[in-house]
Specification:
With 312 residues, the chain is α+β, with helices and mostly antiparallel strands. Helices cover 28% and strands 27% of the residues. It contains six helices and 18 strands. The strands form three sheets. A seven-stranded mixed β-sheet has the order 12-13-17-18-16-15-14, with helices on one face. Strand 10 and strand 11 form a beta hairpin. The protein is rod-shaped, with a radius of gyration of 33 Å. 27% of the residues are buried. About 6% of the residues have low confidence.
Length: 312
């Protein structure tokens, strides 16, 4: 006897169930009188229609707000579907099980058990797993694989950008109490902690204009008797105490041409130098920290997509 047609349904939480499809037409939507009720805010009240005709199953979108997708492609016209096709409506995934639709429609119900007869046997493990197996096969169809691939590529890109932004996030969250790097009489080079707020005191030696470490016009000078390079905004008033962000070595490396000029002007930092960007303080710059927060949300969404595909 031909296998009856069923709709295999999975929600966003991974719960699966099978719904018999014996009628010739079934309306799918959020309205209480829908033939297949999908209680989800992304599903329209009358979202789509499933039809059985001449041994085939057809799906049609009814002008829904978010559309209906088959194997990842948005449905533009009535389309025939079968085993191996995946229909997406809101956060629900649907697949069709069953081949001989006409036989299923004409099949008579099973007779009731005789008095005293033993209860029917429990369904086998294969029968219980069949909805999950059919949905997995649908997801393995060529139209579905690009979705998981795109999520993996997006996750890799987000991870790369997040890695680049991580130092700025740490700086944004770091202490607002400056580290004292001393002065020419008592320098404290060992106290330097990259990506932290620091303070140094002393007269400046030399002055080189440029845009290192930023787009605005800057003036780069050395602090007498220390290994500290101070990067100040152009036009800043004279001062002998400077407070700002100690740059990471990877970002301070771009100052080497300026340091070479300062050496020729008489500044002697010794074997190495650190760069202090005056005026930058933790918690002031929301831009890159906010971007990191957005990327974290995107990473969570793409990771959820990949985990759902793996669980399927």
């Amino acid at each position: 006897m031909a296998e009856p047609v069923r709709i295999l349904l999975e929600d966003a939480d991974g719960r699966k169930r099978a719904v018999p499809f014996a009628a010739s037409e079934l309306t799918v939507g959020r309205a209480p009188d829908s033939g297949l009720l999908l209680p989800d805010r992304d599903v329209s009240r009358r979202h789509a229609r499933l039809q059985r005709s001449s041994g085939a199953v057809w799906v049609e979108d009814l002008g829904s707000s978010n559309g209906t997708r088959v194997n990842g492609e948005r449905l533009e016209a009535r389309r025939r579907i079968g085993p191996g096709d995946l229909v997406q409506i809101g956060s629900f995934d649907l697949a069709i099980e069953g081949v001989d639709v006409d036989a299923a429609a004409d099949a008579a119900p099973a007779p009731p058990p005789l008095p005293g007869a033993p209860p029917p046997p429990e369904p086998s493990a294969v029968a219980r797993l069949r909805p999950a197996l059919v949905l997995s096969a649908a997801r393995a169809a060529p139209g579905w694989r690009p979705v998981a691939l795109l999520a993996a590529v997006a996750l890799a890109a987000v991870a790369w950008f997040a890695w680049d932004l991580w130092p700025d996030v740490r700086w944004f969250l770091s202490s607002r109490t400056p580290i004292d790097l001393g002065d020419a009489r008592a320098p404290r080079p060992a106290e330097a902690r990259p990506n932290r707020l620091a303070r140094v005191t002393g007269p400046l030696v030399g002055s080189v204009g440029g845009t290192a470490g930023g787009r605005e016009a800057r003036r780069v000078s050395g602090v007498l008797g220390t290994n500290v390079v101070v990067d100040r905004p152009a036009g800043a008033p004279p001062a002998v105490a400077f407070e700002g962000r100690l740059l990471l070595p990877s970002r301070a490396a771009g100052y080497e041409p300026f340091v070479a000029q300062l050496r020729r002007q008489g500044w002697s930092p010794g074997d190495g130098y650190v760069v202090l960007r005056e005026g930058e303080r933790p918690g002031d710059a929301w831009g890159r920290a906010g971007l990191a927060l957005v990327l974290a949300g995107l990473a969570a969404l793409n990771l959820r997509t990949l985990l759902r595909r793996r669980a399927a």
